[in-house]
Write the structure tokens for this entry.
Amino acid sequence: MPSDIIWASRWDVYLLSSDSQIHWFSIVNSLMIVLFLSGMVAMIMMRTLYKDIANYNQLDNQDEAQEETGWKLVHGDVFRPPVHSGLLCVYVGTGVQFFGMTLVTMMFALLGFLSPANRGGLMTAMVLLWVFMGVLAGYTSSRLYKMFKGTEWKKITLKTAFMFPGIIFALFFFLNALIWGEKSSGAVPFGTMFALFLLWFGISVPLVFVGSFLGFKQPTIEDPVKTNKIPRQIPEQAWYLQPAFAILAGGILPFGAVFIELFFILTSIWLNQFYYIFGFLFIVFIILVVTCAEITIVLCYFQLCSEDYHWWWRAYLTAGSSALYLFAYAIFYFFNKLEITKFVSGILYFGYMLIISYAFFVLTGTIGFYACFWFVRKIYASVKID
């Protein structure tokens, strides 16, 4: 029988529950708080930074410059390549690949191409997009590696192609073996596992190499200031600027941006309910990106002001630490919302949540890294260096 209701809205009668108003209000409330905090952070940063740059550029002689303290003093070390720079390139490349996959998947879901009724369709789209975004991973990691004066680009490409997918695949295979052991129909068939393997080795790996080759052929990214040959000594840092404390503190705000939405996503995955509000999910994702960027920039600025120039890894880990809070929330959710008693079921839950948390770490870490990368290049290109 013909109906006036469009296809995309036909599930509304089943999916929009009686407490949907609470859902909307809670999400809007969360978004408003995070937007307010982001606005405050941006305002403080802009005022402080413009004042600093104006002061530094008004210095008349070298004696005054010597009296100055803060981020300008470390200009000769701030672009010194970090320890394990190759590993950082691999993680940043993987993060860009993950960011591209997440963004495009959300756009498809937002436009109604991925129905909440067809869960397999969403997962298939994510896997295929991940495979094709391998070009971005290779391109990004090799360009960054070239900036760090690296020469073994093929080794970095291999690590980019195999490290993150390899860890995820190993975890997934172990969890799937447990389901096989239980003789459950929920186990992924061997044929599907083999197809995933073929996608990884047949399409993803070659695409990572193509992207890496193109990235390494590009001109080297030039630093705004020269790097000194001898590393500068870092003064004693205050307790609140110690790496462990600053990194853990930095992850709170990005997690705060998503934890309400996270509750509904976990309910959708583990309590067999439909997740339907992709519009709000997209807004939360944008807020997450902004929050990760701004909190990492603020903490990076304080770090440089205290003359600590080891910002490369700290930028990645500051935003990435929100994944720790995500996993902690998953533990809380397990004991408060789920009634799982079987040992294997518990292992499956924590195994899959570990995979999700690891992916979240790579995604948010990359956002934080690129925010700091842009910020540091911007401020050191803005001041006069004698």
